[in-house]
Each structure stands twice: as C-alpha cells, then as structure tokens.
Sequence to fold (869 residues):
Amino acid sequence: MTSTVTDTNNCTITADFLRELAAIVGAARLLDSKDELLVYECDGYVVEKSVPDVVVFPENSDEVVAIVRVCGKHNIPFVPRGAGTSLAGGCLPVGGGVMISLTKMRQIVEINLRDRYAVVEPGVVNVNLTRALAGTGFHYAPDPSSQGACTIGGNVATNSGGPHTLKYGVTVNHVIGVEFVSPQGELVLIGGPCGRGNGFDLPGLFVGSEGTFGIVTKVWVRITRNPAAYRTMLAIFDSVDDTTQAISNIIGAGIVPAALEMMDKGIVGALEEAFHFGFPLDAEAVLLIEVDGLEVAVDAEAETITTLCKDSGAREVRLSQTEEERALLWKCRKQAFGAIGRLSPSYCTQDGVVPRTKVPEILRFIAEVSERHDIRVVNVFHAGDGNLHPILLFDERNTEQVKRVMLASDEILGKCIDLGGSVTGEHGIGVEKISFMNRLFTDQDLAVMEDVRKAFNPDGRCSPGKLLPTAGACGMEHIEKKHPGRHAAM
Amino acid sequence: MNDVSTEQVLMPASTEEVAELLRAGTAGNSRFCTSRVARSGMDSATAVQRVDLQKMSLIVDYPARDMTVTVQAGMAVSELTGILGEEKQQLPIDVVDSSMSVGALVAGDIAGPRQYGYGTLRDYVIGIEAVDGQGRVFHAGGRVVKNVAGYDLCRLMVGARGSLGILTQVTFKLKPLPEYSMLRSYRCDDAAGLEESLDGLNVSAASPVLLDFDFSPDVLARQIDKPSAAGRRVPYAVHIGVEGTEAACLWQIDELRNECAAGEEIDAGVSSSVDEHCRRAEYNWQDDVVRVRTLPSKLMTVASELAAAGYASRGHAGNGILFVKKEDGDGRVRAICEEIVSRHGGAVSEWSVDHPASSTVQHSVRLRNAFDPHSVFAT
Ligand SMILES: Cc1cc2nc3c(=O)[nH]c(=O)nc-3n(C[C@H](O)[C@H](O)[C@H](O)COP(=O)(O)OP(=O)(O)OC[C@H]3O[C@@H](n4cnc5c(N)ncnc54)[C@H](O)[C@@H]3O)c2cc1C
Ligand SMILES: Cc1cc2nc3c(=O)[nH]c(=O)nc-3n(C[C@H](O)[C@H](O)[C@H](O)COP(=O)(O)OP(=O)(O)OC[C@H]3O[C@@H](n4cnc5c(N)ncnc54)[C@H](O)[C@@H]3O)c2cc1C
Fold:
C-alpha cells in the first residue's frame, strides 16, 4: 500500500547531542544508522512513516530522566515506544527526533498476592505477567489479543482492552499507580498500592494519554483472582443478523459473560485453514462465549446463554469439553489477525464502537458499505462491548482500491458516531484518527483537553502530533498536506 | 462547618445556564460552591453563591438493554436507584444518604462496603458533561462502554469534589441487580484469629462483594456505640456479603463458613442484609471519622497499634480501609493515624480537611489552574 513518508524533519541532531545521549546509554544501546532506524519508521499502522533520528534503549528510570533532559536541553522531540504493536500510529516519531524504546526495562519488580498487586517495568510483555503468576491463583486481567507481544507500558498509554474486558474492565480499571518521567525530565509518582491518596485521580487520567504526558517507567497493577470455573461455548449461526440478535439478547437479558466475541465466515475460514480447529465452514458467523465464576453458577449461566442463542436462531451451541479445546479456541481468536494474511496481501483494521444493541445495525451497514465500495470486509470483534474490528482487505498496489478502502473506513467510523458510539474502543487516536476528533468533540472539549495536555507536556516535545488535532509541534502539518481528506486508518 | 444554605442559592435549569452564570461569575468576581455544606476554610472576602442543580434532574437517555444510563447531575441518587431498579439494574455504589445528587456522588467519589466486589465510581463513569471555571462546557468519554478517544477527563472529575468544574450530566455503565444476597458476620477470639480469617478469605473460592471488619478489644469498650443484639460485645468481627443466584449465595456462605473456621457465626443485630449493612453510617466514611487507607496485609497491624493507642476501628478489610472515630476533635486521632501510617504505608484522610483542591502535587495544581484559573469554585 502507498504509505506516506514524513520526510520533513524539523530536528537538528548535532554531534554534541548524540555524544550526550551515548554517554547515558552507551554506544550499544543507541541506534543512529539509517539501516537500523528503518525498522522504527512505523508501528502496526503502516500508512504513515517517519524515521526517528535516533533510537535509545534505556535500562532504568535514571537513564530515561537523563535522556529526556538532554532532549530538553537541545529542544529535540521524543516519543516512547513499547513493542510497536499500536494500530493507530502512536509510535510515529512525527517530525523525527528521539525514539525511547522501553523494551529493555522488562523486570517484574514485585508481586504481592496478599495485597493483590504487582509492580512492573514498562517493557514487561503483557502475557509474561500472567505467566509469572501461573500457579498462584491470580492473573493480570487485561488481555489484548496482542498480549504475546505488547508491553504493559504500551497498554497503559493506550488503555488497552481485550476479550475478557467485557467482565473485568480495561487497563484503567487495573492500574493503581504510575511512575513516569515528565517531559521536563522529572521522575513523578502518581498513585501506588494504597491508591491515589487525597488528590485527583491522576493515574486514571494518565492511562490512555497515548504517550503524550511522559514516559512510563513503572506501573502498579491490580492482579485478579482466577475464577474457579469456566464454560466456553461456540455458538454457530446461519445468518449474521441472527448472530447479532443473539448478542443483543444476551446483554439485554442482563447477563455479563466474561467474554463475548464474534467472528464471521471470512475469519472462520481463514482460522480453520490455519489451525484446523473444526470450525463449520458453511456457518455465516460464530460467537465465542465464555462465562466464568463459581462452579455452582456457571452451568446455569451457560444454559441460559445456550437457550438465548438457540432462540435467536443458532444452529448449534458447542460447549468446550476439555481445557485443551478451550485453549485452542482462544488461541484461534487471539491469532485471528495473523490468519488474515491468508485472505489478502494487505488489510486495515478499524476499531469503532457502538451501543451494544446497535451491533445488528452497524453490521448491516458495514455489509452495505463493503458491497458499495467493492471492498471485502471480514469481522472479528468484541461483540459484548459493541467494539467492532471490521477488517478491510485490499491490495496495496492497487491505488484506486486503496482510495475506496479509505472511503469505506471513513463511512463506517462516521456511522459509529451517528449511532452514538466512538471511533476507537481500544486502539487509540494516535495519528490515525486525529481528523475524527472534531466530529466526536466540540471545540471547547478540545480546548480543555489541550489545556490538560499542557499541564503535563507544556512544550509539546513529548510525542508531538498525536491524539489532539491541536497537538501541533513539528511534523503534523506535512501529513495533513499529503492526505488532503484524512489520513487513512489502515 | 458553616451552613451556606441561607445565602443566595442559584438554581440553573440547563447546562447553558450553568455556563452563563459561571462566565458572569468570572467577570463579576464571584465564587460558587456545589456543596450543601460549606467547609470551614471557605469564607473569604468574596461572597460564595451556592449552585444547586435540582432543576436539572432528568434522565437524558436510558437504553436499558445497553446497560448504560445518562442522567442530569441534579437527580437524587435515590431516584436514579428507583428507575434502574425497575429494569433490574443498578449502579453498585453504596450511599448512606441517598438524597445526595448524582453530581455529588460522582464528585465525592462516594464508595461503601461493596467497593470490594464492585470497584468504585472510576469503574462506572463512562461519560461526563461539565462546565469549568471559565464557563466552558466540556465533554469526555461518551455513551458506549468502551471508548479511548481523547483524554480521560471522566476519571479526573470523579472525586474532584467540584474543584475543576460543575458536573451537569453523567453517563454510567450499569450492572444487573443480583437475584439474591446474603450477609453473615463471624466473631473471632482475638486479633490473630481475625487476621487468620482475613488471610484465608483472600484466597477463597467464593467471591464476596463485601468484606468488613470490627476491631475493638475489650479495653476499648467505651468506644463501642451499640452492643450486639444479644447484648454481648463483639470485639473482633468480620462481615461478609455475597450476591448472585440463591444457589451461588448458599454455596459461598458454606465455603466462607469453613474459611472463617477461627470465627463463630454471630447475629450482627442491626443489619441482617447486605443492603442494610451497606447503608449503615458506621461502615461508610463519615464526617466524624478519620479514614486510613493501608495495604490489606498491614490492616491488622494498624488496627492493633490504634487499639494500643486507645482507638477502636472498623472498615473494609478487603480494601485495607479503616475508619477511626474522632472523639475529641483535638487532632490527636489524626496525628496518631499519621504516625502509624508513616511506618506501615498508606494515607490518612478527613472529608472536611483533605480536599483534592488542596493538593500540592504539581500536576494537580496545574490542572486546577487550567480548569479554574480565576478560583471561582469555592471548595
Ligand atoms: C494483532 C494485534 C492485535 C491487537 N489486539 C488488541 C486488543 O485486543 N486490544 C487492544 O487494546 N489493542 C490491541 N492491539 C493494539 C496494540 O497491541 C495495543 O495498543 C498495545 O497496548 C500497544 O502496546 P505496545 O507495547 O506495542 O505499544 P506501542 O505500540 O509501542 O505504543 C503504543 C502507544 O503507547 C505509547 N507508549 C509505549 N510505551 C510507553 C511508555 N513506556 N510510556 C509512555 N507511553 C508509551 C507509544 O508512544 C504509543 O503512543 C492489537 C494490535 C495487534 C497488532
Ligand atoms: C466525611 C464524609 C464522608 C461521607 N461519606 C459518605 C458516604 O460514604 N456515603 C454517603 O452516602 N454519603 C457520604 N457523605 C455525604 C453526606 O451524607 C452528605 O451528603 C454531605 O455531608 C452533604 O454535604 P457535602 O458537602 O458532602 O455536599 P454534597 O452536596 O453532598 O456534595 C459533595 C461534594 O460534591 C461536590 N458536588 C456536588 N454536586 C456537584 C456537581 N454537580 N458537580 C461537581 N461537584 C459537585 C460538592 O462540591 C462536594 O464537594 C459523606 C460526607 C462526609 C462529610
């Protein structure tokens, strides 16, 4: 696909500046050769590209402080990066500058089961915390599908969700403290294991700030008791309408499953090819539903859900019989994105949200848009939350098709707003969806948010060009020029 | 505390009217407060006008099947509870005085015993509309349960106690009302027994919604407000509440009884249900108590040291929250709590003293300046 290279780099990197950085991290943890830097030109959002001038890999918060101070002294912008799985261009070094990669800060500092929290460095990969908790009866609840790669620092910055956030909440519901390096180079602690004290809920505000408030160097997260029992079901439907009706009926009945995920025929086909799970290839859609809790309660809940699905037209509801079967089902769901490569050379994932009872309506709309623009769309998403992930398939060499993908994406997200929803449930605004901010919020809303950004990041040096249309600083203007309509969500 | 109710009370009927009066206030050098009771430090040269949102008390949108509700901030919590109850739904936040407004509930970050199982308002507010100190109407979040567009000002407004803006509308995520609930209280012989029970409960297969405790050794008998129904003092007790289906509640109570083997089941007397327990003033943060927040693992140490200093405590064991009565108001209780917390970790708070607006944390100060540069909010 044709991507945009933000070639206009406003930063002047001097030999002095590089020397000062190298003095902090050493030559081995600093990249500044063109070839090495190319890897960092984009994250999971590949439409816009901008190569950082230098990438550094600090190993502790003192080094982060020193790096940020040197950037301040030379007036160079900087951007934090975790695993780079952002789907919104959150890691794009708009206008160049320094990329601070946190992947070498990956210690689990403390696990406290009695008080139900853990302290981790930002580069800890999400699943590694849950792995470290294996056998303790506890786990870390937020489970993005990318959990095998993404970092907890990145999760904090984007307020990540995942399949099980339907019942357990998103990242903000599990973060009780954050240590970060402010854009002025001070080490700041907000919250902690005993909560936020007598002040404002600063950790709550910080989560989801997409790297624009500072560099997270430590996180206090809640850990959650493992449920005593699960029941995992696969409900199989012959029509998308029946499937979405079942979702609506389950939530409408006041049942909150642990997870309620939908996958349509296109995805199921690709998954079957990849994993040979035994998915029915003739079904129009399936729901992956999990209930958890007390052994005495889960059977009744599973039964109610089975009845609701069948009443809504499900052809069959299969209950996972073994732990292995359940694990494979979840593996399929979490690797669905990986399987898409089998369907198309390029794809673009959207992240719209609608009120949950509007899922039938939005899916009909997506089908209609797909047909009208002649762009194949497959769906795999967090149905219980109304958080859609329509995946638009295309060939990046076909520029005319790329245009239609942009138009289709735009219409889908616009419809999400019209239905009372949002353009992002978990991936963030980043650079990708900035142009939607004016549609979601009033000028005054944005002015207030801009003031909040300034309270943390007064010079705009920390991750410029993200989240707010006003987040000026070097770079953004050029992207806007290259994408006169809006920068695509791909 | 001074009663400001005698002063001029402004009753705007719309968000725009709230914005207008704040803009006028900025120009005219007036100050406003949303609290029904003034704090002692509040009096200043400028007259304080009380803003009451009782004319803004409508449901804006209640798509029950989406399990969300949008309500104007002036609605009384009791009214909201009634409306949600008709759809068998709830906002699982415990309040003692349900005449308080939804705005006060959110701004005060009110939380009671069931915060152990359900979390607090930060887990339920998904959208807000408010007016800041410059009269700017602003929104954050939305009406969907999952949304990461823009900064999360919802979290910021929860617990800000009117110092950053006047909330005019709030959207909540809701929970189903449980079919059934049960409360049980157990007596422990001594502090060690209580601690043992609490440790066991932390890894219980049951999932209680509340886990409260009483800690008042016999030597502190004078501090006990009410004897138990049997006329017998219960110095060490743990109160456990469960919710769900009847079968699930019965199973859990059985399980919990085994886990509290150190404790003998008692008749808690005053409160026999989860509902009643959660509305009891003693198990909620009140004006005449100091709140200590510590780690659950330090709770018994803190409670024992308080007892040694002559103070009984009770509170939410699962959350590491203790309440200590201020008998004499001479500041001694607070000083003792602070000293204990300085050794074991945690924070001490008094509702009327520790206003978030008084925080000297630099980012809090900057946020205050951004939202209320002219200090029109009297807090
Ligand atoms: C296949 C796939 C599946 C996905 N599934 C989900 C899903 O189910 N749910 C979901 O929510 N997301 C999902 N995502 C999106 C992505 O994984 C999340 O946004 C994740 O939180 C990003 O983590 P990361 O470590 O890769 O961060 P990055 O991509 O490196 O960075 C993301 C943002 O966080 C900032 N950041 C990173 N580290 C820090 C730090 N230490 N301090 C301050 N800011 C920082 C960056 O500047 C950037 O703005 C998926 C992505 C992929 C590719
Ligand atoms: C120490 C203490 C603890 C308390 N704990 C509980 C409790 O656990 N459970 C319970 O049910 N009640 C609790 N209350 C509330 C109590 O029952 C009375 O409601 C209260 O005393 C009335 O006065 P107020 O100052 O709290 O004002 P309220 O009118 O109740 O307001 C509370 C706070 O919210 C702010 N506020 C009100 N409306 C808005 C709005 N629209 N926008 C922005 N801010 C607004 C006010 O400025 C004030 O700071 C507590 C009160 C105190 C003093």
Notes: Residues 1-6, 227-231 of chain B have pLDDT under 50 and may be disordered. The first helix of chain B runs from residue 15 to 28. Chain B touches chain A through 74 residues (CB under 8 Å).
